[in-house]
Design a protein that fits this description.
With about 300 residues, the chain is an alpha/beta fold. Helices cover about 40% and strands about 15% of the residues. The chain is globular, with a radius of gyration of 19 Å. It binds phosphoric acid mono(formamide)ester (CP). Phosphoric acid mono(formamide)ester (CP) binds next to helix 2.
């Protein structure tokens, strides 16, 4: 891997993304075994530093670490000495003094993982930093797309929803463009950043046209906390204009693949009947998340071959 850390996918080498995806497929085979564990990271210690809520990413990273036989420690900001006024720098340096190898960090502030690399020597993996990036989500999304279609180059992906506040969207845009996919963004104009076309994507405010065009849709969570703040008039209007509803998909005579990073607002950005249908690969994304994070940890921490796959 060209980079020591995984802070984001902006300018990330295409070859390294492909290596992660290929390695994820070989780890997925490990996850199908009765004993889902390999010794690849035996002796390595990884701290999961979560300053913000998470279900999927946190459990996925912890499982990935355990499947690779690493020692793991979970840190929760709400029960730490940060509550007593300790700084982020002191907390990080004290944790590193206990001889660790890597930190997986989620933080509400964009740029925090980069800041952490200034404080510690360990490998840093960004598990989501505010509205900036969520690179491991984008990698698991690309792994899922490659698994479904067999290729990424030339694939047509619609990303629907709150693009402006979505770290999932930004990491997907960077990753998909690097891998040669075509990306169209769709959502309320208040939630599409100005000049976003400079990232090599198209913008189309008509979700039906995007559905006709795309091979797959990545449907983003509408962040209810932004309702009423002038960004979206109402949930009902959002659903009518941009929702991936049963009626809307029934009007299109095509089988389109549906993705969602979770957590979902059923009945808002996506209908339950769509989320639970065969065309949705949402739970495949979750399983591929464990395999992709195993691959990322293995490749960044210099895991050893066991002679039994990985
Ligand atoms: N997709 C995702 O990041 O989910 P969590 O917030 O539950 O980790």
């Amino acid at each position: 891997m060209q980079n020591k850390h995984l802070l984001g996918l902006e300018n990330y080498p295409a070859q390294d993304i492909q290596t992660i995806i290929d390695t994820a497929f070989s780890f997925k085979e490990v996850l199908e075994r009765p004993i889902k564990k390999v010794p690849s990271l035996q002796g390595k210690t990884i701290v999961n530093l979560f300053f913000e809520d998470s279900t999927r990413t946190r459990i996925s990273f912890e499982l990935a670490q355990k499947r690779l036989s690493a020692d793991t420690v979970n840190f929760s900001a709400s029960t730490s000495s940060l509550k007593k006024g300790e700084t982020f720098k002191d907390t990080s340096q004290n944790i590193e003094a206990m001889k660790i190898d890597a930190v997986v960090m989620r933080h509400p502030t964009p740029g925090s993982p980069l800041q952490l690399t200034n404080y510690i020597d360990s490998i840093v993996i960004n598990a989501g930093d505010g509205t900036h990036e969520h690179p491991t989500q984008a990698i698991l999304d690309m792994t899922s797309l490659q698994e479904k279609f067999g290729y990424l180059k030339g694939l047509k992906i619609g990303i629907i929803g709150d693009i402006a506040h979505s770290r999932v969207a930004l990491s997907n845009i960077y990753g998909l463009k690097i891998m040669g996919a075509d990306v169209t963004l769709c959502g309320p104009s208040t939630l599409i950043p100005p000049h976003v076309e400079e990232l090599g994507v198209k913008v189309n405010y008509n979700v039906d046209q995007v559905i006709e065009w795309a091979d797959a849709l990545n449907v983003l969570r509408i962040q209810r906390e932004r309702m009423g703040g002038g960004m979206i008039p109402s949930i009902r209007e959002y659903r009518n204009l941009f929702g991936i509803t049963t009626e809307r998909l029934a009007n299109h005579k095509k089988e389109i693949v549906i993705m969602h990073p979770g957590p979902m607002n059923r009945g808002v950005e996506i209908d339950s009947s769509i989320a639970d249908s065969d065309q949705a690969i949402i739970l495949d994304q979750v399983l591929n998340g464990v395999a992709s994070r195993m691959a990322i940890l293995y490749l960044l921490l210099g895991g050893k071959e066991s002679g039994d796959n990985k």
